[in-house]
Amino acid sequence: LTKLSKLEGFLSYEGWQMEPITRHRLGYEVYLLGSYKRSLERYMRHNAITHLEAVNLGLDMCSALSVCRQAGALYVDLKPSNIFITGNQEYHIGDLGFIPMDSLKYASLPEKYRSPYPAPEVTDALSSLSDTMDVYALGLILYQLYNNCSLPEEADADGLFTTPLYADYELAHIITKACAADPAERWQDPVEMGQALVSYMQRN
């Protein structure tokens, strides 16, 4: 995070503090020190997200996730509470949740990163991680924004969710492809998904 916070798409931090976890567990609690920013989760509770804001969020997250991969890591804890909004309405990742790309097939998702947003193939504690799980999480967040802040119901027999309520057919395709149940059916990396969003913006 110290390295990535100097790059586009990540919040910068002035310092951190580590404290041993009590309650008979091993490890440390990590506290990050930085200027206050609203999380997307908090913003969604009190504000309607416009169409342009949602697409820009998708573009900013595709860029940040690509930067993360270029640095050799996959961000595996993407969710609204870990996305923060800057004063100029840009969206940045602002929390820990990185796993080295070269260790994905040897790692499972840590318990602390379990939420509604990880891809279905990694929810089993014994499953190895998928290199499209960051794309899946972003697709699910965009789905939520275009579906009256509600996550999708269960997928159909083909592993696809129903169309988000307020997405047009082009955008709905981009979103549902990102969160397809089969990893092979998803956008294969954030760059590919970002290019689809840019093309959508240019056509509309």
Provide a descriptive summary of the structure in words.
Strand 5 and strand 6 form a beta hairpin. The radius of gyration is 17 Å and the shape is globular. The strands form three sheets. It has a three-stranded antiparallel β-sheet. Strands 1-2 form a two-stranded antiparallel sheet. It has five helices and seven strands; from the N terminus they run βββααββββααα. The N and C termini lie far apart (36 Å). The protein has 204 residues and is an alpha+beta fold. The model has no long low-confidence stretch (mean pLDDT 89).
Low-confidence stretches: none
- Summed up, the helix count is 5
**For the largest beta sheet, what order do the strands appear in spatially?**
3-5-6
Major beta sheet summary: 3 strands, antiparallel
> Percent helix among the residues?
25-40%
C-alpha geometry: globular
- Provide mean pLDDT, rounded: 89
List keywords for this structure.
7 strands, 5 helices, alpha+beta, 3-stranded antiparallel β-sheet, 13% strand, 204 residues, two-stranded antiparallel ribbon
Question: Any chance you could write out the topology, listing elements then pairs?
Answer:
Layout: E1 15-20, E2 28-33, E3 38-39, H1 40-46, H2 51-70, E4 73-75, E5 83-85, E6 91-93, E7 98-100, H3 133-145, H4 169-178, H5 190-203
Antiparallel strand pairs: 1-2, 3-5, 4-7, 5-6
Helix pairs in contact: 2-3, 2-5, 3-4, 4-5
